Amino acid sequence: MSLFKARDWWSTVLGEKEEFDQGCLCVADVDNSGSGQDKIIVGSYMGYLRIFNPHPVKPGEGVQPEDLLLEVQLREPILQVEVGKFVSGTEGLHLAVLHCRKLCVYAVSGTLGNVEHGNQYQIKLMYEHNLQRTACNMTYGPFGGVKGRDLICIQSMDGMLMLFEQESYAFGRFLPGFLLPGPLTYSSRTDSFITVSSCRQVESYKYQVLAFATDADERQETEQQKLSSGKRLVVDWVLNIGEQALDICVVSFNQAVSSVFVLGERNVFCLKDNGQIRFMKKLDYSPSCFIPYCSVKEGTINTLVGNHSKMLNVYQDVTLKWATQLPHIPVSVKVANLQDLKGVIVTLSDNGHLQCSYLGTDPSLFQAPRVDSREINYEELDAEMKELQKIIKEATKTQDILPKSKKHRDLIVTAEVSPDLDAESQAIDSEVKAEAVPSVTVKVTIQSKVTAQKPNLAVCVQAPLAVTCDQFVFDDLEPDSSETVVLSVFLKGNCSPSELEGNCVVSYNTPTGIVKVAQCNFRLPLRLICFPAQPSKAANHKLTIDTNKPPISFLTIFPDFVDPSEDDQANVLGFQFLTGSKTTLLASKTSQRYRIQSDQLEDLWLITKELTLRLEEHFKKQNCKDFACTFSGSIPLQEYFELIDRHFELRLNAEKFQELLSERAVQFRAIERRLLTRFKDKTPAPLQHLDTLLEGTFREVIALADAAEENQANMFQAFTKLKSATHLVIMLISLWQKLSTDQVAILEATFLPLAEDTQEL
């Protein structure tokens, strides 16, 4: 038995699927029995109020029926329970229950039973306050130094402190600069309220200042009144702790200095009454709740801190004195006097595990049982060992194959791209200004080895490329059946794409309801976006790719672009893009080099990529494994930066157009409202040129919308060009530095995170 486990003295689980939080636990002599024994009061978000008086016969025994004094279901969720002198004319303790929109104060009383069922307890509603605002938490105390009674202060979700003098509402004040409610407590020594604001600072407000400040009902005052009146709510002191607080406690013991304890997300702070830090403790875990209590050593304070690792740590000031394991994560912890046992630790978890525990250990009475000795049959063991080794050997032999077959071969999707362009183009709604926009057929086949329910095929290509149909839904596929669809890909936008690749994704359900996905990629031919043309000698941008093999004739590697009858095309080749630009490819007759040149930097990318791919495929067919391309020129960074600047400028323009459009739209609606009121008026009044103004604004809105659309089209083109140029720069860096595939993937992930261009990214 571990010394560092919390010893279970009494525990129970409250209700079923109920939720609890920080304010739901309270310990006090709520029925005014005078015995000095505390009762445990628990409220839940389901509206159940329970009061326990634990009496275990021996430690660790389960809950007895008579331990539950009272269980009532109130109609609303219980946010917090507190016990204090809340009823006028008596100094007896009463129970305050905080709901979302109501505060109720009850008297708890017991009547002696004259049969074996024991005493009977009931609650009586003394008074209630209906709240105008949704409550968050509350605190109580002798505000203003009153004697013999407690007042209640409730903090609402929108930052209003509502103060109640027992049966009557006193006043309400809004906290300045409020955003979200934090923990709230009252310090009787300084007569002030202490909270932690959304600015992550501890703030203290004097009760006198709250009482004389401007009323919350007059919050809608003008700036002039704000400046002239001297009744604004002023903070007494502020301390920036730099983190959100979970709880605040004010402690005042005889032998220790009065202190304010603040539990942050990573630290515990102990402050003096004037807001100065006495000490702080950095925590290496995530705390969930805490409570300071009286220490035996003079001048120090003990603190219990619960955390999300199910641990309860005991600190004396900043020194860790003990750590103990709990069976649950505590959301609230209290120290109580129960059944002549002082200092019982009461913890409550968010799902209703309530436990009373003590620290230390009980002597263990466990004795290890004797082991029956039996004779060992070595022959049997040898045979079993050989059998197991045989199974292990089989498993390791087929390890690489088996999981893949299970994982990937349930459903296979393949895409076959036609080697020739379509005889009759399938292009629809293309914005390209060329005479004819070609298209290519892609045949997608789905083969299923299992029952595939609701298979759904999506075919994706990068804009400005488009497909004739991108979504297909099939009936359920039987095992060993297949489906085939045919679609065409064409160039839709009036700019060259940055990639000639597409992918097919099939999602389907297995009979057990698991969603699975199968996918494949396909490569589109270069002929889809360009056609052979006369080479041009002059060009603004030139790249030279070096290889370690003699140059190959273009008749061999570009048969689809070269006319075999023309010998002069063996070393020089021209490509005319559908969008109008031209690129030339030259092979050196003497050295092992190829040159790509064009007027636009981004047009070099697809031709350079196609050249390297086709050269690699050519040498692969000839079983030549040491072929390599390199690049030794200078990387065209200046031109690349110009493309980045152009794209950035268009993004700024898009934002500007959006702002202008929203301004004009607001103006347009304002004029419309004015006109409507004029038209509805029973006595006709002159329009005062409002109709002219409306027409002018309407024209401006339309013109701005047209300009924004044009800018969007330009931005898409700039984005595609930038992507192509980025691909080119990454490729040149990889050829220059001879990078591996993994290193290129890292570069691409860094420089090419955008799949599409939006204002949000």
From TrEMBL:
Residue ranges of domain PTHB1 platform in the record: 525-632
Coiled coil spans: 371-398
Any single GO BP term: cilium assembly
Any single Gene Ontology cellular-component annotation: BBSome
Keywords carried by this UniProt record: Coiled coil
Pfam families: PHTB1_N, PTHB1_GAE, PTHB1_hp, PTHB1_pf
Record domain PTHB1 GAE: where: 435-522
Ranges where the PTHB1 N-terminal domain occurs: 1-363
Protein's UniProt keywords contain Magnesium: no
Domain PTHB1 hairpin: 634-737
PANTHER family: PARATHYROID HORMONE-RESPONSIVE B1 GENE (PTHR20991), PROTEIN PTHB1 (PTHR20991:SF0)
Protein's name according to its UniProt entry: PTHB1 protein
Lineage of the species this protein comes from: Eukaryota, Metazoa, Chordata, Craniata, Vertebrata
